[in-house]
Amino acid sequence: MSSSELQYIIELSGQRLLAVPNTGNRTPTSNRLQTLRDRAHAWFKFDMHSFKTISLPEDLYAKKKLVTDGHLYLRDEGGDLATIIPILPKPSQRTIERYWSAGTLCLVPYSTTLDVLMDPAQNLIAIVYSVPDEDDPLESNEMVSIDLRTLDGDSVHPEAAGRTLIVSGPAGYDDNVDRIETMCAKLKGCGRHIALQRTLVVDGTGDRPESVCHLQIWDWKNSTISSSVLSDTVPYPFEDSIDFCFLGNNRLLVVTDYLKLYSIEDVSQTPQFLACFQAPLPLSDVQCHLPVDDIEHSSSQLQMQTQQTMHTSDPTHRLLCFTSSYPTTLVFIISTRIFFDLDGIVATTPIPWDFWGPSNTRVFRYPYLCKVHVSGNRVLQAFTVGAPDTCPTEYDVHMMDFSPLAVPNRQGLGRVVKEPSTIQVTVLTSDSEENLKITTSLPYVEVISDRKFNVRELEGIWLDKDRIYLFNANWDCDAVGSLQYLTSQSSRLEVIDV
C-alpha cells in the first residue's frame, strides 16, 4: 500500500492496459496512478446532456457511417460519394478532411467501388473495386483490385509495397465457369494487414449457382500479392451470414455458426488454423464490432503522441462484440482472453459452447432495434424501450465496464452484475422449432443514462478511450401520391468528453 509503483502496475493490469515504454514522460508515478483512477471513475458518471455538437451539411446522406481515430467517415454506397471530417481534434493529432464527389473516389474507368477502408492513423485509404472483363464486358466475370493511396492526397502511400493489391479468384474453378460475380465485399485493416472478404456467385458449375465466401489477407507494406486465402462454399441465403475481425496484429477470427481462429503472422501461406469455438445456436446476419483504432497504431502516430501516451489497451484482454439478427437481435460480448489462452486446445476439435462460452461471455437479447460499440473493456449499448406490442419510439443508453477493477473504481456508482443471466431463444428448423436457454456470467458494472433518444433520429453510436459519439439526423417525410419518402433535413454529431 505504500508503493505507488506497485499500485500503478496493479491498476494497469486491472484495467487491462499495458504501459507504453520509452515515452520520455517524467510525470511521477503517483500522479499517473491518480490520473488512471480518475479516468476510470469518470465513465461511471458520464453525462449524456453535456456535449459539443458538430452540424453537418444538410444535403449529406450516407448509408455507411463510422467514427475512427477521431474522424467521422461517411460513404454513400449507391452514389459512390465519401467524406472524412476531423472531430474536435487534439493538439497532437494529425487531422484529415476530404470530400470525394461522384466519380473521384476510384479513377479506374468503368469500375464499380465495392468497399472503402479509411485509416487516418496511417494516412491510408484503400479502395476495392471491380472492372468488367474487357473481352466480354456483357458477362459478369470481373477483375477485382485494391487501390492504396494516401488519405490526404492521391499519391501512392509511401509505406505501401505498391499502388495496387492483386486480388485472386476462388481456387478450383476452370474455364467452364460461365460467371463469377462479387455480390458483397468487406474490407478491413489492422496495422500492416488488410483483409478482403467477398461473397461470390459462381455459375456454370452445376444445376444451380454456388455461393462462395473468399477471404484474402495482405501484408500491404511488404507485398502486393498474397497466398493467405480462406475459401469455402456457403449455403443460401449468404448475404452478411459471415463476418471477421482482427485480434491484435497476428490473429484473425471468422464468425459463422462457429468462431474460427487463425494465425496470420505469415501471409505468404494459408492462415494457420488454431482453434474452433462452437456458438450456442445458429447465427445469421452476423456483424463483428471491434474498433481498429484500439488495436494497433502506426509507429509514426505513436511517435507523435509519445509525450501524451502512457498506456495502451492490452490486445489479449479486450472485448469482442458481435451481433446476430436472427431469430432475434442477440448481442454477444466476449472476453478475447479465450482466443489467446489456447493451452490444451486441439485445433481439429470444435470446442463446445458450454466449455468456453458461459464464463467468458455475456449475451443480451433485444426484441427490437439495438446499436452497440466497444472500446477496450467498455461497451456502449443503445436499445429500444416501450410497452409490449407497441412500436418503440426511444432508445435507452447503457455504459458497461467489464474490467476487473470496474467495481472498486466506480466509487458507489452504477450497478454491479456478477450473477448469471439467462435468455431464451426460439430456433426454427425446416420441420420444427426448439427453445434454447443461454446462460452467461461475465461480470460487469452498468450505468444507465437518464437521457433518451428518438428512434428515428439516433443513427449511430461510437466509443473510444476519451469520448462518446452520437450521430443524429432529423428527417422530414414527403408524400407523393400514396407513397412516402424520407428526406434528411439536417444531421449533427454530438461529442461527449469523459
Number of strands: 34
What helical percentage do the residues reach? Answer: under 10%
Query: How large a portion of the residues is in β-strands, by DSSP E?
Result: over 45%
**Which overall shape is indicated by the principal axes computed on the Cα atoms?**
globular
C-alpha termini separation:
28 Å
Using only C-alpha atoms, the radius of gyration works out to 23 Å
Q: Number of helix segments?
A: 5
Which structural class best describes the helix and strand composition?
mainly beta
Biggest β-sheet, characterized?
6 strands, antiparallel
Low-confidence stretches: 295-307
Average of per-residue pLDDT values: 84
Task: Characterise the protein shown here.
The structure is a single chain. With 498 residues, the protein is mostly beta strands. It is built from 5 helices and 34 strands. Strands 24, 25, 26, 27, 30 and 31 form a 6-stranded antiparallel sheet that branches. The protein has a 4-stranded antiparallel sheet with strand order 2-34-33-32, with no helix packed on it. A hairpin with a 4-residue loop joins strand 21 and strand 22. Helix 1 runs parallel beside helix 2. The longest helix is centred in the first third of the chain and has 14 residues. It is globular, with a radius of gyration of 23 Å. About 3% of the residues have low confidence.
